[in-house]
Design brief:
The structure holds two protein chains of two kinds.
Chain A: H1 4-18, H2 24-36, H3 41-57
Chain B: E1 5-12, E2 21-24, E3 31-35, H1 42-54, E4 83-89, E5 96-104, E6 107-111, E7 118-123, H2 129-132, H3 135-146, H4 149-189, H5 197-206, H6 213-230, H7 232-262, H8 268-284, H9 303-357, H10 376-385, H11 389-467, E8 476-480, E9 488-494, E10 497-500, H12 502-505, H13 508-525, E11 531-536, H14 544-558, E12 563-568, H15 571-578, E13 587-596, E14 600-604, H16 609-618, H17 624-645, H18 660-666, H19 669-674, E15 676-682, E16 688-694, H20 696-705, H21 707-714, H22 725-742, E17 759-760, E18 766-769
Parallel strand pairs in B: 3-12, 3-13, 7-11, 11-12
Antiparallel strand pairs in B: 1-2, 1-4, 4-5, 5-6, 8-9, 9-10, 13-14, 15-16, 15-18, 17-18
Helix pairs in contact in B: 4-5, 4-11, 5-11, 6-9, 6-11, 7-9, 8-9, 11-13, 16-17, 16-22, 17-18, 17-21, 17-22, 20-22
The chains are: A mainly alpha, B alpha+beta.
């Protein structure tokens, strides 16, 4: 059964993806660490930068 | 965690179960109401569920016992004697499973662990614990639903990142300005060349700062070559003086030797050789008999001494000759050194020339007008002519170094400016995205927590409204204190004022209900279909007017759970179930009798009165007195129900006690003739149909023979001698027919008029017509 953190992490990632702040693939990788409190600064920065670059290219 | 149906719990030597006790659960019934007076062992059954599900015995806690494990087992038993076994049947496989909990190393061990049931226990003593708890403790109780500390840590990391990058951006902006100022200063110092300062700076920065390095190296080489030549004039003077001194020494030594030779014979040299040889001989033969040269013995005495004296005359000459030889050698050495000096000077002059010719010198570098002379003697004059050049070269070198340094500084300034400008631009793009992500995380977290709390509060309010309908106390709110971490406030609306703490305004009974509602709402939030809900004597403090609604609420809520066990010593509940006033289709009613230290917990069967009447009538020789007594009570219950339902006119009497004689006439003729019950029947395939049964003939017959109840069933009466037993039995049979038609032992009495056409019981197994008394 999902913990509250896991349930909330799923909602947060869905929102970040819908707002194109991260792509779906990166979101999937972020989810467990986000729920467990294991995200480091670069874990936040890299996917958002990647998504920004992708958006800029398209 | 298993969700299969419960079939039996067996308790061995846990607290009051001094002998093994088994409680079977009826198939298809997920609510078990365990009735018993105080001290019959109800809490032991609750403890058994607590033990197997939670590894604890909650009823012993908070009683000042410290660690309670040593009190878990029955008196005189060991911990190893204690066990609780829960047998279940899987809904999918219909297979029987058993899960057993024992004590091992001071802890409860459940095997197999996968079958350990999820159990939530609420005891009467805990009912107010959540309401009256401190906000922090209240938060701890529900933290399993709203604890998102993992997310909060990740959120904090993101917040720190934004703070750090914002700070980096400020530094980048400052660096850009700082280096821009430097470039402008350089540009102005350079005479504001070009279109603008940046264009100039970028062009200058592209220049190679090492362009002058070759020239500086060559200039250094030229200076070194010149330095090597600079010492030669002085060295020449020293070498020349040394030669002259050596030559003078030769001359002096020769003159001295000549003077010494004049005092000695011409063949003095040869003679000295003979004398030195003889001196050696006389040293070895101090007293010879003859002269070793002429072999004469004449004058042989003192010959050694005389030879020694003659040799001393030759030593001055020898010294002079030695001095001359040394002086000659010194002259030769000085001549050689002078030659080496000349050759070196020549070579170094050539090297200087090579250095001078070997580089394409800038025009601002002045060079000697003539080549360096290879003749050492001309060097001094040449060096004097170019004596000003080294200082000039030093100035050139300094200028070149300054230029190199300037280019390096400018280049670094341009690079720092460009790098920081780029970093600033990147952060200008990234920071809003990160801030947006943080906003999304914060929003979602708040929304999630609010949703969960709102859901719990809404559920509490909903359940509360069932028990206290229309009292307006159901607007419960749960809010996290924004100023304190992990702190939960509970509030309600009271007299139109929102945010009122219920502890301050609610009655004790209302608070008890609220506590129960909070517990039920929380238990239902976390997988209720897998949860065994145990409510231990929670009705005790609820006031009478609310008990019935509370029971109805518990019936309704219990269906959400895997199983619900409710213990009570509330006697009316038992009676209402007996009389079918409460639907008990989903409910298994269990009664415990007095506990003894030899028998432990004991079950007794509570048989409904209609069932008892059926049993009495089924006997081979029914006892008319017992039949009439039981049938009379049942008939009174049925008439009480009908007269209230149809609001029949009855004589008003203090105490409100009515006899058959009062009640039967209240069912007037029109009503009697209208009363009809549709009884639901099921065929073998489970298809339902309704069979209409008129109550008219039953009630009229009962009306006719009602007096047999008093004659047979109530008093010793001579009239009974004259009445037939068959009348008494007939009375009983008619009463049984009436009660079986009117009330369903599982689904109760038809009390609901929701259809608008008839009265119905739960599940509409009985439909009673008419809806109203005919006019």
């Amino acid at each position: 059964m999902d913990t509250p953190s896991q349930k909330l992490a799923t909602k947060i990632i869905a929102r970040l993806v819908s707002e194109k702040l991260v792509d779906a693939e990166s979101g999937k990788k972020l989810l467990p660490k986000l729920a467990a409190g294991g995200l480091r600064a670069e874990d936040w920065r890299l996917p958002i930068e990647m998504s920004e670059k992708k958006e800029a290219k398209s | 965690m298993s969700a299969s149906a419960l079939t039996k719990i067996t308790i061995e030597h846990l607290r009051g179960s001094v002998v093994p006790f088994s409680l079977p659960f009826e198939k298809g019934k997920r609510l078990s109401v365990i009735y018993g007076e105080n001290g019959t062992g109800k809490s032991t059954i609750c403890d058994a569920f607590d033990f197997i599900g939670n590894g604890r015995v909650g009823s012993l806690e908070n009683r000042g016992l410290g660690k309670t494990a040593k009190y878990w087992q029955s008196i005189g038993k060991k911990a190893s004697d204690l066990s609780v076994t829960l047998e279940t049947v899987s809904a999918d496989t219909n297979k029987s499973d058993a899960c057993r909990a024992t004590v091992g190393k001071g802890e409860v061990v459940t095997t197999p662990a996968i079958l350990r049931p999820k159990v939530e226990v609420l005891r009467r003593s805990q009912i107010l614990s959540l309401i009256e708890a401190k906000p922090g403790d209240r938060y701890a109780t529900i933290s399993r639903f709203i604890d998102v500390s993992g997310i909060e840590v990740s959120e904090s990391t993101l917040r720190d990142l934004i703070r750090e990058l914002s700070s980096s951006r400020e530094v980048a902006v400052a660096r850009v300005q700082e280096n821009l100022d430097t470039i402008v200063q350089f540009w102005e110092a350079a005479g504001k060349i070009g279109k603008d300062h940046m264009a100039w700076a970028e062009a200058e920065a592209k220049r190679d700062p090492d362009t002058a390095s070759g020239e500086l190296t060559a200039l250094g080489g030229l200076q070194n070559a010149l330095n090597r030549l600079a010492d030669y004039p002085a060295q020449l003077i020293v070498a020349t003086q040394a030669l002259r001194a050596a030559q003078e020494a030769v001359r002096s030594a020769k003159a001295l030797a000549d003077d010494s030779a004049k005092t000695i014979a011409t063949d003095a040299g040869e003679t000295m050789g003979i004398l030195e040889a003889a001196s050696g001989y006389f040293h070895r033969h101090p007293t010879p008999a003859t002269c070793p040269l002429c072999e004469s013995a004449e004058k042989v005495e003192g010959l050694g001494q005389r030879i020694k004296e003659r040799l001393e005359l030759f030593s001055a000459l020898q010294a002079a000759q030695q001095q001359q030889r040394v002086a000659d050698k010194q002259v030769q050495q000085s001549i050689g050194q002078l030659e080496v000096l000349r050759n070196n000077a020549k070579r170094h002059a050539q090297e200087f020339e090579n250095a001078r010719k070997g580089f394409n010198w800038s025009k601002d570098i002045e060079l000697p007008a003539s080549p360096a002379p290879e003749d050492i003697s001309a060097l001094d004059e040449w060096l004097k002519q170019i004596g000003h050049l080294p200082a000039q070269w030093k100035q050139v070198e300094t200028a070149r170094q300054d230029r190199k340094q300037f280019l390096a500084t400018l280049k670094a300034a341009v690079k720092t400016l460009q790098d920081n400008f780029k970093a600033q631009k990147e952060l200008d793009t990234l920071l809003p995205k990160l801030s947006k992500a943080l906003e999304a995380v914060e929003d979602e977290r708040r929304q999630f927590t609010d949703d969960v709390l709102s859901k719990i509060a809404g559920e509490v309010g909903r359940i509360y409204e069932i028990v206290h309908p229309g009292e307006g106390l159901n607007k419960i709110s749960l809010e996290l204190d924004p100023n304190r971490r992990s702190s939960l406030e509970i509030a309600a609306e009271f007299c139109g004022q929102a945010g009122a703490p219920p502890q301050a305004y609610f009655s004790d009974s209302h608070l008890d209900t609220l506590g129960l509602c909070v517990f039920l709402a929380l238990a239902a939030l976390d997988g209720p279909e897998k949860t065994i809900l145990v409510l231990d004597d929670i009705l005790a403090s609820v006031d009478e007017p609310h008990v019935e609604r509370l029971i109805e609420m518990l019936y309704a809520e219990a269906v959400k759970f895997r199983h619900c066990v409710i213990t009570t010593h509330y006697r009316p509940w038992k009676q209402k179930l007996r009389w079918g006033w409460l639907k008990n289709g989903q409910c298994q009613f269990i009664e415990l009798t007095r506990w003894t230290n030899t028998n432990g917990l004991t079950l007794i069967k509570s048989v409904p009165d209609a069932e008892r009447l059926r049993t009495l009538l089924a006997e081979a020789s029914p006892d008319p007195q017992l039949v009439c007594a039981k049938a009379g009570v049942i008939l009174e219950a049925a008439l009480d129900f009908l007269t209230q339902l149809y609001e029949c006119s009855c004589p008003r009497r203090q105490g409100g006690l009515y006899t058959l004689g009062d009640l039967l006439p209240c069912i007037n003729k029109k009503l009697r003739q209208s009363l009809l019950v549709e009884v639901m029947t099921k065929d073998a395939a489970g298809a339902t149909a309704y069979k209409a049964v008129s109550l008219t003939s039953i009630i009229e017959e009962l009306h006719r023979i009602a007096q047999v109840r008093n004659v047979f069933g109530c008093h010793f009466n001579e009239f009974s001698f004259e009445l037939l037993d068959s009348d008494a039995i007939g009375f009983g049979q008619n009463v049984l027919a009436l009660i079986q038609t009117l009330a369903d032992p599982e689904a109760g009495w038809p009390r609901s008029d929701k259809s608008g056409k008839y009265w119905a019981n739960s599940g509409e197994t009985r439909r009673l017509y008419p809806l109203q008394q005919p006019t």
